[in-house]
């Protein structure tokens, strides 16, 4: 297993120089290697031998080591369910390389959430005057939805859905959060509203109130 050693040194260590620190770390590594070797012998580990040139363990077959010495690995083979909405809130800006062909077709979308990759979005999705006045949209929040992310690209591809408004204001920020998490905040349909009592003012009937626990 990998060994990470933390060393603390004060002004006295600094006076001795790097040689003193190097010797101290070397002694710690040797001590740890000896401890691991003794534990391996106590556990009856086979397929392990020591050499004069190396104080560490030599393993002929990793399958012979106990489980606590192994790092389990795995590989993703299939995405069963996409939990993320693929929508993100962020800002748009022009590409840095103005001479590239991509500059004429795409803009860069930078999500507020840094866990989401930056996205190429078509200029056709951007406001008409974005190329001529990009500074006017530097603090404007947009919603972008990722549609593709090629394996050989550092950036995803997406489409701008809508402009939310000025960053820092409550309504645009709230709407962006709801859209990112896939929360439906649209108005109720007439069918839903018809389920509500139509004779107003409405009161709870005495019979219904009698069989309920009043938490008011």
Automatic annotation (TrEMBL):
Residues 107-182 form the CSD2 domain. Pfam families: OB_Dis3 (PF17849). Keywords: Cytoplasm, Exonuclease, Hydrolase, Magnesium, Metal-binding, Nuclease, RNA-binding. Its main location: cytoplasm. SUPFAM superfamilies: Nucleic acid-binding proteins. Gene3D superfamilies: 2.40.50.700. GO terms for biological process: miRNA catabolic process; mRNA catabolic process. The lineage of its organism: Eukaryota, Metazoa, Chordata, Craniata, Vertebrata. GO terms for cellular component: P-body. InterPro entries: Dis3_CSD2 (IPR041505), NA-bd_OB-fold (IPR012340), RNR_Ribonuclease (IPR050180). This is DI3L2 exonuclease. It is found in: Cytoplasm. One of its GO terms (molecular function) is poly(U) RNA binding. Coiled coil: none annotated.
């Amino acid at each position: 297993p990998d060994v990470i050693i933390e060393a603390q040194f004060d002004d006295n260590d600094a006076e001795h120089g790097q040689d003193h620190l190097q010797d101290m770390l070397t002694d710690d590594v040797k001590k740890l290697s000896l401890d691991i070797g003794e534990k391996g012998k106590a556990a009856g580990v086979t397929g392990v031998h020591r050499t004069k040139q190396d104080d560490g363990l030599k393993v002929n077959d990793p399958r012979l080591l106990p489980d606590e010495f192994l790092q389990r690995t795995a590989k993703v083979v299939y995405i069963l369910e996409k939990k993320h909405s693929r929508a993100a809130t962020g800002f748009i800006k022009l590409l840095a390389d103005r001479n590239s062909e991509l500059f004429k077709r795409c803009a860069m979308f930078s999500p507020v959430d840094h866990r989401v990759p930056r996205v190429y979005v078509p200029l056709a999705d951007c406001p008409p005057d974005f190329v001529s006045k990009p500074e006017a949209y530097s603090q404007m929040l947009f919603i972008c939805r990722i549609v593709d992310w090629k394996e050989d690209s550092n950036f995803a591809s997406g489409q701008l859905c809508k402009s939310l408004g000025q960053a820092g204001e409550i309504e645009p920020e709230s709407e962006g959060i709801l859209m990112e998490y896939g929360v439906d905040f649209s108005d109720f349909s007439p069918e839903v509203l018809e389920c509500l009592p139509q004779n107003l003012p409405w009161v709870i009937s005495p019979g219904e109130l009698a069989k309920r626990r009043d938490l008011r």
